[in-house]
Amino acid sequence: MFELLPEVGLRLPGRAGTLRFGMDERTAQWAVATVADVRDGWVCGARWAFSAQYRGLTLDAYGDTTDRHGRHEDTPGLAGIGLTRAPFPLTGPSACPVVLRGIDLFGYPTSEVSDALGDDLPPTLRLSGDGLYLTAVSVHPGSVRVER
Question: Does the pTM exceed 0.85?
Fold first, then answer.
């Protein structure tokens, strides 16, 4: 089970530990490598990024971000985590639950998940899907700056 911890990061399955915002690339990759093969990735504005596949889910992580336009805060260490479900079996629970506040996010109708979560989701959390089911979730440590 993956457990989203919006102010902290992401608890990994089994005893692999927790990806904590601010941790360095090597530590983050090592933790994920205990449950899945890690592959290098790329994210605009990040010095490092990687992904891993685990039981029908893709985990993406990136860090050491800068934003020359000033819309986001520069963030040292782990700055963003995302989980995406494979696009084909959207109905029914995923092989590995992705949980927020004890609620499995994937495999149930979006309306049911939204009702269970309520309206006070952290501003650092993003949920997305095809309208009927959620297919992706991401979390980052800080909120987006609002330009006036």
Answer: yes
